[in-house]
Amino acid sequence: MFNIFKQKEIYINAPFKGEVIELENVADQVFSQKMLGDGFAIIPEENILKSPVNGEIIQIFPTGHALGIKTKDGLELLIHLGIDTVELAGQGFNKLVEEGAKIKQGRALIEFDLDYIRENSPSTATPIVITNMEKIKKIEILKKGSVKAGQKILKVILA
Predict the structure, then answer these.
(1) CA-to-CA distance for 93 and 104, rounded, in angstroms?
(2) Could you tell me how far CA 151 lies from the centroid of its own chain?
(3) What is the pLDDT of residues 117-158, one digit of tens each?
(4) Which residues are paired to 121 by β-bridges?
(5) Where are the domains of the chain?
(6) Which residues contact 57 (CB under 8 A, 6 or more apart)?
(7) Is 80 a catalytic residue?
(8) Using CB atoms within 10 A of its CB, is residue 95 exposed (0-12), middle (13-18) or buried (19+)?
(9) Which of 80, 109, 124, 128 is catalytic?
(10) Closest alpha carbon to 78 in 93, 63, 89, 68
(11) For the segment 16-40, what is each residue's pLDDT rounded down to a tens digit?
């Protein structure tokens, strides 16, 4: 009647065309052991990271290899392009947004040189992690394997 008991659902979409894998399969213990939070990873087939949600850029690393987004519901996401890519010192990454930018799902955030990352880092797998898991009641991966940019990947139910 008034949706008092309706659960708040948020969907996290694919930031580019690629292959969705579980975090446990990422070649980095910080992500595979979910030390920063839970979510999924995607192996990119495109070279532009697009926002998986509506929100605000709350952090973008100077090297351009990772960023944080906060949704209007307070969900905080960390997106990390590739594994050990901080070691590339910004080479191969071009930031298209700045901290504080209000963004819509699908907006281009970072352009990256996929071939350079393949050649110079252990993996192109891109973890997308919810860093404030205390706000989460349940998460569910909706799709694994090959996905298109913008496709719903993770269903999040807020606590």
Answers:
(1) 21
(2) 13
(3) 999 999 999 999 999 999 999 999 999 999 999 999 999 999
(4) none
(5) 19-158
(6) 67, 68, 69, 97, 98, 99, 100, 101, 103, 109
(7) yes
(8) buried
(9) 80
(10) 68
(11) 999 999 999 999 999 999 999 999 9
Closest CA to 39 of 66, 10, 16, 12: 12
- To the question of domain 19-158 being in CATH 3.30.70.260, the answer is no
CA angle 15, 34, 86 (to 5 degrees): 60
Structure token digits, residue 124 = 């192109």
Residue 5 is predicted with a pLDDT of 61
The residue type at 154: L
The HSE-up count of residue 148 (CA atoms within 13 Å, CB side) is 2
Q: What are phi and psi of 120, to 5 degrees?
A: -120, 10
Beta strands 108-112 and 66-70 are: unpaired
What is residue 7's predicted lDDT score, i.e. its pLDDT? Answer: 78
Query: What token pair was written down for 113?
Result: 């040189």
Question: Quick one: what percent of the chain has pLDDT higher than 90?
Answer: 94
87 phi-psi bin (left φ>0, alpha ψ -120 to 50, beta other): alpha
Neighbours of 87 (CB within 10 A): 13
State pTM to two decimals: 0.94
